[in-house]
Amino acid sequence: MKKYFLTLLLVFTAGILSAAAQGVTGKWKTIDDETGEAKSIVEIYEKDGKIYGKVVEILNPAKREAKCTKCKGADKNKPILGLVIIKGLEKDGDEYTDGDILDPNKGKLYSCTIKLDGKDKLDVRGYLGFSFIGRSQTWIRV
């Protein structure tokens, strides 16, 4: 009985530590805040101490070949599939800030903050100027 309890405690502790270590990195299903539709899968990863996110799957078959025609600069006319849409976020307490998020449909770049809501939900906020003037989405871990 003692071995069983110890094993159970060890497995439980390892699970908690694994979930906490995972943080915001991983694959996330994006949910459109206006339609409620799942749109894509974005892989969030860390590079040089900052957080980035790349579109790795587009869920609507009719939009899989879409390009970022309204984007400016280096992203103009790039395929949305494979496009880095979250750039340069830095950890600030329990959220990530001071980076940008690209809306490839509108070609607009917004300031961005992201924050975990539990282990399987990610609150993503894009805004211009002040954080209270913007849009929020909740993404779901895949």
Automatic annotation (TrEMBL):
InterPro entries: DUF2147. Residues 1-19 form the signal peptide. Residues 26-141 form the DUF2147 domain. Pfam families: DUF2147. Keywords: Signal. PANTHER family: BLL5882 PROTEIN, BLR1215 PROTEIN. This is DUF2147 domain-containing protein.
